[in-house]
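Quick note —
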Amino acid sequence: MTSDEPPDLGKRLKTLRQSKGLSLNELAHQTGISRSALYKVENSGMSLTYQKLLRVSEGLGVDIAQLFRMGVEPGAESPPAAFREVGHPGEGDLVNTPNYDHYYLCNDIVQKSLIPMMGRVKRRSIKEFGEMSSHPGEEFTFVVEGSIEVHTQLYRPVVLRQGDYIYLSSTMPHAYINKGPGEAQILTVCTRPEHAMPQSSVEIEVASQAGGDLERPAPPVARSPRSTQVAKSPAVGTRARSRRG
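Predicted structure written out below.
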């Protein structure tokens, strides 16, 4: 995993909030996150889950990458038509939560369509995990090390081992549980909410219940029968911190 040195989310959040001329009460109203929770983030180093980070970035009108990098200023323009970032093992922007350690990658690029993260799965039972999480968009998760059990609202739990992967609607409540004796590491790539539309009436209903902002949903897409064979991919490198290459 990457360095366990977390970004100073509290300092960054306060800087962005003040640059927008917002009080804690106003930001709480715009994000649906309590004033006390936002105060703890700014002053006590409390972390936020991925779905709450999304809500904060949307409430502030900034890209999620701007919550991690002081060098990425509010109002930064979208990246040019051609761009890239190169990462290396041992670097990343850590956000520690009770259920996961998330290492956010490629944060020098703002307004990107995908949000890549390396993760450490911490909980070992769905009871310990608590309420399953949901957020707008879609996600792909690849098991880098160990094994995990994926719980979702609409499907039976499935166990994935090293090299296995899953693609799911993030609007559907879901949870990743560590099912091995050792550490479980995953690579997850989430779409930015505006770059993913539900593909079925069921997903639209789940998204609506989860509070997703749905506009112009795409028509249902015919899906081919699922293969019983799980493709094995080569080992994935360890976490990387984004930097211009």
